[in-house]
Amino acid sequence: MKDVLDELAAARRAMGTAALPAGDAYTMELRRRYDAPVEDVWNAITDPERLGRWLKPVTGDLRLGGSFQLDGGEHGEVLRCDPPRLLRVSWLFGPEADEWPGTSEVEVRLSPGLAGDTVFELVHAAAVGEPMFPTYGPGAGGVGWDLHLLALTRFLADGGILDHDEFPASPEGREFVRRSAAAWGEAHLAAGGDPDHVAAAVEATAAFYAPEPKAR
């Protein structure tokens, strides 16, 4: 379990603000390093075959102006693509989300480290007032990204694949989720979140991603 929790601690998390086409937004921000060159990390986040092995299977036209859809229902358009440094996409979930375009975007920035590694930054901006925030806070998306970046770590290291269904239900995965939710709670507090709201959101987020096993 130590290796998994070390990976969780390797990322810096923050909340911020942004402007989206639909209006004011809050951001979930992650920054960490990967022991791989920029070109390899870029390929892992843009090549459909490799992307599907650590994120989710993807279909569509992965080029500037093209649209995509993930197997889990997330979908959007490629808004900016500057290989191998910057990728920005709109990020919507579910058919109803299409009625409110411009409400969610994800941007990934890559830069070379001093030791041939890669500095990886992910910023997910979601419109203020989106329905998940009152209950889950930034952990609504933040815990999901922590899980996917753990999967990316394993994939870049040796091609290993993290089972996104089984891992959160395992003792190791439940602890990872609990600590991830708490870390996003700390970022929420640092951004000025109400302590009572933050505490409730952390608890709700952990229960959502890793619910208690049902008694037999």
Automatic annotation (TrEMBL):
<protein>
    <submittedName>
        <fullName>Activator of HSP90 ATPase</fullName>
    </submittedName>
</protein>
<feature type="domain" description="Activator of Hsp90 ATPase homologue 1/2-like C-terminal">
    <location>
        <begin position="35"/>
        <end position="153"/>
    </location>
</feature>
<comment type="similarity">
    <text>Belongs to the AHA1 family.</text>
</comment>
<dbReference type="InterPro" id="IPR023393">
    <property type="entry name" value="START-like_dom_sf"/>
</dbReference>
<dbReference type="Pfam" id="PF08327">
    <property type="entry name" value="AHSA1"/>
</dbReference>
<dbReference type="InterPro" id="IPR013538">
    <property type="entry name" value="ASHA1/2-like_C"/>
</dbReference>
